[in-house]
Write a structure and sequence with these properties.
Elements: H1 2-37, E1 40-42, E2 51-53, H2 56-66, H3 68-85, H4 92-112, H5 116-142, H6 152-180
Antiparallel strand pairs: 1-2
Helix pairs in contact: 1-2, 1-3, 2-3, 2-4, 2-6, 3-4, 4-5, 5-6
Amino acid sequence: MNNTYTTKKQSKTSSSEQIKQMVIAAVFIALTYVFTAFVNVRLPFGGNGGLIHLGNIPLFIGAILFGRKTGALAGGIGMAMFDVLSGWTLWAPFTLITVGLMGYVVGAVTEKKHGFVWNLTAMLMALGIKIIGYYIAEGIIAGNWIVPVYSIPGNIIQVGTAIVVVLLVAGQLEKAARKLV
């Protein structure tokens, strides 16, 4: 009898934990979308110009605090949802993959290694993924491999800004998140 109770209790805890993880992922998906959609500046140069936004901040924070699954979901879904809802629909599949991979990598690195240097390393890896992923995407969309070069500075500014902000707050947020989990 006691064994059955333990199994039910473990099942309940597992279900409760899954719900908690889904809620956290949903919150970071929403934050990534909002910070992308409502805190942005369209760049006036290059082929497509690009967009500088703050959506990478909640993406990176979610990945650092809650791991690769949250990072991948927040980045991929949050920013692809922005593309679909803002008229950049053609970009959505590329965003889903590229930014989902960015979140996954940041989360995977920081799940195993903690601290300023590892957070920075993970986000710099994400910057590389962004530059390569969007270079390929824009090359395919534009049908030209020169035009995407003009978007690289915007990608660097966008992710670089997020890196600075996240590095300033990540340590304190990690301490607070440990209390929640």
